[in-house]
Design a protein that fits this description.
two-stranded antiparallel sheet; Rossmann fold; seven-stranded mixed sheet; alpha/beta; binds S-adenosylmethionine; 9 strands; 15 helices
């Protein structure tokens, strides 16, 4: 089985920190798909699963709770000749045209004002409106899917501009942006600076699109991409016979904060909406003091023992905040696994997981996911470990106090609903 790691040479329009590689998805499809396959990724992120399925002519559905991941997954499907045309158009625009009054960006209560001073936020709104228009300029003759994909490419440009613009608020952890607390900390950028960030983002997109093939294969199948919560709504998506997916890891990556540039580019959420997303998204560091408590599991199970070890750990806040955090994460994961297993019929679920540590307590995500899948009546048909560095979110120079290595494995687990159909495993 191929490693899920993103190889440096694999050209993707959006280098998502948690994405897995196209070759990994291809490998799983080769081993487990049949002509009748309908594929699901309930944590679709930047959409590796749906993009590979589309190019192979396989029907797929990609769901993600984060609305900002939708245009990212669409962008992966954009035709490269159209993207290159869009890049050429954007690169040719003078700053005075980009910021002309005809592209007024409305919506004053979006999140931009929380990060940028009022002038910069206003300019970014104009740029956002301009980029939406720019995709439409090339829309003649395109069907709605093709337009959504091209708009996704314009969205990637804007997200890149915003990611760079937010650089002063980034620390060593690439998935975190700090919040300005005072007016003086708001980011300020003039139009010339924004224009040069735009040109850089366009050049980046152009470079990654040049090597991509122009023509679509005849069998190309647009995926169904949607916002959906894996903990409760998967039944609405119908039945599937294969899932290729990777849940949010238990490494305190706050996926809502990590995608702040994309949230700003989308402009849909205000502060209240953003906080709601932060509460709901799995793996979130936001926990409620009066949460529902730990999931109901036997104290002798792997998950039960892990939660007890965290609860009883001598470190500060282990019995309070950290217990709440891990209880919520695993409650969300078990609910999602219950949903996922109910929509896969006569097929397989391929899951990529990475284990992690809380101090010296190993969070054996691979073992815990296996335990949950077996409890749902599935069988483990293949398991393969690939070495990976421990997540940056937990990486702390003091890790040596607790363990000798900061390297762990990323595991590829394949489960079968009965009957088991093992084909050329390992
Ligand atoms: C590890 S990433 C998946 C990466 C993906 N395999 C790729 O190639 O980009 C996990 C994804 O799960 C999403 N997510 C978190 N909580 C969710 C939920 N309750 N329902 C659906 N998606 C969720 C996050 O927004 C994130 O995009």
């Amino acid at each position: 089985m191929q490693s899920p790691k993103l190889p440096a040479k694999e050209e993707v329009k959006y280098k998502y920190y948690a994405g897995f590689s196209n070759t990994f998805v291809q490998d799983v499809l080769e081993r487990f798909s049949t002509s009748a396959t309908r594929v699901l990724d309930p944590w679709n992120g930047s959409g590796a699963t749906t993009s590979v399925c589309a190019h192979l002519g396989i029907q797929s559905v990609g769901a993600d709770i984060n609305p900002a991941m939708l245009p990212v997954a669409w962008a992966r499907l954009a035709r490269s000749d159209l993207v290159l045309k869009l890049c050429k158009h954007l690169a040719a625009q003078r700053s005075s045209h980009l910021f002309s009054a005809s592209h007024l960006g409305a919506q004053e209560n979006d999140l931009l004002s929380s990060f940028f001073d009022s002038k910069s936020a206003a300019n970014l709104r104009i740029l956002r409106a301009y980029l939406i228009d720019a995709a439409n300029v090339h829309a003649a003759g395109l069907d709605s899917n093709e337009l959504a994909a091209l708009s996704g490419a314009a969205f990637i440009v804007l997200s890149e501009v915003l990611r760079e613009a937010l650089r002063p608020l980034r620390g060593t952890n690439p998935s975190w942006f700090s919040r300005p607390r005072h007016k003086e900390q708001l980011v300020q950028l003039d139009r010339a600076e924004l224009h040069s960030l735009l040109l850089r983002a366009v050049a980046g997109l152009e470079a990654s699109s040049k090597s991509a093939p122009n023509a679509r294969p005849d069998h190309f199948q647009w995926p169904d991409l949607r916002v959906c919560d894996s903990r409760q709504n998967l039944a609405n998506l119908g039945k599937f016979n294969l899932a290729i997916t990777s849940p949010p890891y238990c490494t305190r990556i706050d996926y809502a904060v990590a995608t702040i540039p994309e949230q700003l580019a989308l402009g849909e959420l205000d502060e209240i909406g953003f906080l709601a997303l932060r509460r709901e998204i799995m793996g979130s560091v936001v926990t409620e003091k009066h949460s529902s408590g730990p999931p109901e599991v036997s104290p002798t199970s792997l998950l039960g023992r892990t939660l007890t070890a965290i609860q009883n750990h001598p470190t500060k806040a282990a019995g309070t905040y950290y217990s709440r955090y891990f209880s919520k994460y695993f409650d969300d994961l078990l609910r999602s696994i219950s949903q996922l297993t109910s929509v896969i019929e006569n097929g397989h679920i391929a899951v990529v997981v990475q284990s992690s540590y809380f101090k010296d307590v190993k969070i054996d995500l691979s073992g815990i996911v296996t335990e949950a899948m077996l409890a749902k009546g599935l069988t483990l048909s293949s398991s393969r470990a690939h070495f990976a560095k421990s997540s940056i979110a937990w990486s702390n120079p003091k890790f040596k106090l607790y363990r000798s290595s900061n390297v762990d494995t990323e595991d590829v687990l394949v489960f079968a609903t009965s009957p088991i159909t093992q084909r050329g495993l390992q």
